[in-house]
């Protein structure tokens, strides 16, 4: 009797433990405001990418540069000058994609130069590609402009509050002359106050 009662109790504990650890996964709105913590998050990424690309595309200078042609641009990976680990490649990709969708620019992808070089070497020296159909070296189009930027932050903390100020700056440089044709910046401030039950 005691043995049967012990087994029944053990099974009950196992069932309850299994139920209590059950997780529910659901889809959310990718554009919804994310307030999990004070660090740089998805909402901040979307905000800076949208504001910077909107400013670039709407600029009268860019309008004149792209009036009769689609200049070739390369986007340098953004510099992270904050103390946080931030995926700047994701921000760079979002900006490049939105600018490309505007139809005003064409892009060269500098992050894939080595992969392209390997493919061209294979076509030229591998002996597996018809020489009349192999792409020759020295035919790629060079970029005319470089789009680049920085993300920096200032963090202030006291007993009751933490304040983080982010500044995101971007510039478009004419590679031939070195002239900055366009520049803009956007700012984000996030504050976390100490709750009565702790941080």
From TrEMBL:
UniProt cross-references to Pfam families, sorted A to Z: LpoB
What keyword terms does UniProt attach to this protein? Signal
Top-level taxon in the UniProt lineage:
Bacteria
Q: Which residues form the signal peptide?
A: 1-17
PANTHER family named among the record's database cross-references: PENICILLIN-BINDING PROTEIN ACTIVATOR LPOB
Q: Which NCBIfam families match?
A: lp
Name of the protein in question: Penicillin-binding protein activator LpoB
Q: Which organism is it from?
A: Thalassotalea euphylliae
The gene name on file is lpoB
């Amino acid at each position: 009797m005691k043995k049967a009662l012990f087994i029944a109790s053990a099974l009950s504990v196992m069932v309850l433990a299994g139920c209590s650890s059950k997780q529910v996964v659901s889809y959310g709105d990718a554009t919804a405001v994310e307030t999990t913590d004070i660090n740089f998050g998805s909402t901040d990424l979307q905000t800076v990418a949208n504001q910077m690309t909107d400013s670039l595309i709407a600029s009268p200078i860019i309008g004149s540069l792209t009036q009769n042609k689609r200049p070739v641009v390369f986007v340098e990976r953004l510099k992270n000058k904050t103390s946080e680990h931030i995926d700047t490649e994701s921000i760079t990709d979002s900006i490049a994609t939105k600018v490309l969708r505007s139809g005003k620019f064409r892009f060269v992808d500098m992050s894939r130069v080595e992969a392209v070089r390997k493919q061209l070497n294979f076509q030229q020296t591998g002996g597996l590609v018809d020489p009349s159909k192999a792409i020759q070296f020295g035919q790629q189009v060079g970029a005319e402009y470089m789009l680049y930027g920085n993300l920096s932050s200032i963090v202030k903390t006291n007993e009751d509050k933490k304040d983080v100020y982010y500044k995101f700056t971007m510039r478009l440089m004419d590679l031939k002359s070195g002239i900055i044709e366009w520049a803009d910046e956007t700012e984000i401030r996030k504050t976390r106050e100490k709750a009565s039950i702790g941080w």
